[in-house]
C-alpha cells in the first residue's frame, strides 16, 4: 500500500463508521412451523429428466451453453449455473423457488426472480432490469435495510449476511446480485418482509489518485413467501480429539440443502479458546467442500464453549465414504483474551507473541493505534471486539477501524477516545491460523 493511501486510511479512522457488522447477534425469536404451497423452477416430474440433462449440457457443451445464453430468462440462469455449484445442484433437485417479485421506487424497479432457502440459510437472487445500464467504471450493490417476519411484523435478528456486487461486465452476462443469509439460531420464518437499498459506485481517476463516489438509487420492499423447508439430515458423532494441547469434541453434523453445519464443543479445562477451525471434507477420495475462513461461516456462544461451522452442502449426494479433516486451528490463550494498551508509553500488557504496537497517532481527543501481526498466506482477520473499556470499566465503541496487509504482516488500525490515564482495555476476538503438520481425520456417517 502506498503512503498516500495509508495516510488517507489514518485520516478516515477518526470518522465513526456508518455501518458496523452484526454477523453474530443472538437470534431472540423462534418461529413456529407452518406449511406453504410448493412452487419451484422445475414444475412437474415430467420435466425433471430434461432439467438434469440441461445442467449436464451447459456444463460440458460450450455450443449449447452459448445458444441458450441468447434466451432472455433461462440464459441468465444458465450463466449462474455454470459458475455456482450450489445453484446447479439446487436446480437439479428442484430446490430453487421461482418467486418472480418486482419492487418499484418511483419509475425505477428491482427484480427478485429466485430464492433458495432452508431453516438455516436464505439465498436471494436479485436482478437488475434491462433498462438499468452501468458504465464501464461503475458497479451496483444492494444492502439490506430491514428484515421482518411477514406475519407478526417483528424485526428478525440473529443472522449474518454477505452480498455480491454487479459490475458492467457481469451486467452483460447475467445481471444477478446474490445475497447469502445465515441464521445462527432458531428457524428462518417462511414469511418475510425485507427492505433493501440499491447503491451505485463509480471510480473517477484524478492526476494523483482514484476516488470512489456513491449514489443511492432508492429503497425497495419485497414480501416473500417461502416453500416448505426440507428436513436436515442429522448425524451423531461424539468424538474427542486433541489439537495443539486443546480438546475438541465433534458433537454432530447437520446437513441442509444449502450447507452443512458441524457442531463442536470445548471442555472448560482447555487453556485456550478455540476461535476457528480450518475444515475440509473428503468424499470417496475427492475433496468435496471446504469451510470459508471469512464472513459468518463460524459462530460460537459467548462463553466460547461451543462452535458451529457452516460449510458447503453435500445434501443431495450419497457417498460411499466421507471424512472430515481438521487442517488448522485458531487458538487464543484464555489469559491473553484482554490486553491493556498504555498509549503514553506505547506498550501492551500482556505481550502477545507475533503482535506489536507499531505506531500511535494522537489527534485532539482521539488516538489511532496501529498493530502489526504476523500471518500465514492471505489470512486477514479481525483482531478486536468493536467495544473497549477504560480502566474505570466504562464501555466505548471504536471511533474508526481499518486493515491493510503486505507479505507476512497484517496491520490493524483502530481509533479510540483518549482516556484520562492514557490506558484502554481491548478484547481480542480472532488470532492467526496455525496449520497442523498432519490433519485430524474424522469418519463421517453416510446415508443409505
Structure description:
The chain has 448 residues and is mainly β. The protein folds into 3 domains: 36-225, Immunoglobulin-like; 233-334 and 435-444, Immunoglobulin-like, CATH 2.60.40; 335-431. 12% of the residues lie in helices and 49% in strands. The chain contains 6 helices and 27 strands. The chain has helices at 3-12, 48-60, 62-68, 74-83, 85-92, 168-173, and strands at residues 97-105, 108-117, 121-127, 138-149, 159-163, 165-167, 176-183, 191-205, 210-225, 233-243, 246-256, 259-265, 272-283, 286-290, 298-300, 306-311, 322-333, 338-342, 347-349, 355-363, 366-374, 384-390, 395-397, 400-406, 409-417, 423-428, 434-444. The longest helix is centred in the N-terminal third of the chain and has 13 residues, at 48-60. The chain is globular, with a radius of gyration of 24 Å.
Task: Describe how the helices and strands are arranged.
Layout: H1 3-12, H2 48-60, H3 62-68, H4 74-83, H5 85-92, E1 97-105, E2 108-117, E3 121-127, E4 138-149, E5 159-163, E6 165-167, H6 168-173, E7 176-183, E8 191-205, E9 210-225, E10 233-243, E11 246-256, E12 259-265, E13 272-283, E14 286-290, E15 298-300, E16 306-311, E17 322-333, E18 338-342, E19 347-349, E20 355-363, E21 366-374, E22 384-390, E23 395-397, E24 400-406, E25 409-417, E26 423-428, E27 434-444
Antiparallel strand pairs: 1-2, 2-3, 3-7, 4-6, 4-8, 5-7, 8-9, 10-11, 11-12, 12-16, 13-14, 13-17, 15-16, 17-27, 18-19, 18-26, 20-21, 21-25, 22-23, 22-26, 24-25
